[in-house]
Amino acid sequence: xxxxxxxxxxxxxxxxxxxxxxxxxxDALLSALRELDVPLEGDTPPxxxxxxxxxxxxxxxxxxxxxxxxxxxxPAAFNSALPAHVRAWACADVPDGFHATHDAVERGYTYxxxxxxxxxxxxxxGARLLAGERDFHNLTPDETGTVxxxxxxxxxxxxxxxxxxxxxxxxxxxxxxxxxxxxAFARGEADRDRxxxxxxxxxxxxxxGIAPSPPEPLVLTEVVYPDVTFRVDDEAAASARTxxxxxxxxxxxxxxxARSIRDGVAADIADQ
Length: 272
Prior knowledge:
about 270 residues, alpha+beta, Alpha-Beta Plaits, 2 domains, 10 strands, about 30% helix, globular
């Protein structure tokens, strides 16, 4: 059994988990294993499991997949059959019976909230109200696994609030709905009573519900396993740094183009 750390840009994908007729991260991984002639049982290698099922548009630094792998399958070898925006970069040999989903004791997500005018101290006040062991059933469509012991840290990085969430697991859309609630609190659009109502056992329905924030600023940044030490593959890590530096530069260029259009429209309006 071997576990692999996988980084990916989630924007081109309809989430991690396989779905019919749409591209997913799992499809990319399993297609690469087939191309590399890794032994499979049906569609997956023996023992195959992943740490998390990220939503459509969500990216990852530390997604983890584990399965029975041949000795030669290093992260660099894995990358040779993967698309450029999906990169293995570290691995660890793990015991027989290891399960990438169930053996994780903590997961971490980070959301980059563009909020130049939002007060960080008020956002932190909201985070303190949400932290601890809570039933988050009003912040997810899931009906099980809603009780979590949540930690939240918020730092200012230029115009962004970097919001880091840690827990033993996360229900679907929980992080993105937490971001919506935190942003509303930080802007003064929600108060302590609103947060307490969201955490109440009574369901929130219809217009009272909390919608998820956009998925693109969210990254799965950490998955923790007891007594598992990942070895960074230098070649694979260098490839990942190159790929994601290029994608970062491309994104900045697209943002610059959008800004030029915005400024040009504003100038034309001012001249009329």
